[in-house]
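[Discussion] Sanity-checking designs against the backbone

I'm trying to build intuition for which residues belong where. Below is a structure token string of 40 positions. I'd appreciate it if someone posts a full sequence so I can compare it with mine line by line.
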């Protein structure tokens, strides 16, 4: 239904807003960047 209303891009935003695994992964990007800088 979301895809019918907002198209593919909008539908993914709706789906990902409730995806706990995606939200956890997205929250770790800042930490990953900091860890990558330690190796330089």
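Best answer:
Here's mine. Compare freely.
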């Amino acid at each position: 239904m979301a895809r019918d209303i907002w198209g593919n891009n909008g539908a993914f935003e709706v789906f990902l807003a409730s995806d706990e695994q995606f939200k956890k992964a997205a929250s770790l990007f800042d930490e990953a960047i900091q860890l990558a800088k330690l190796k330089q």
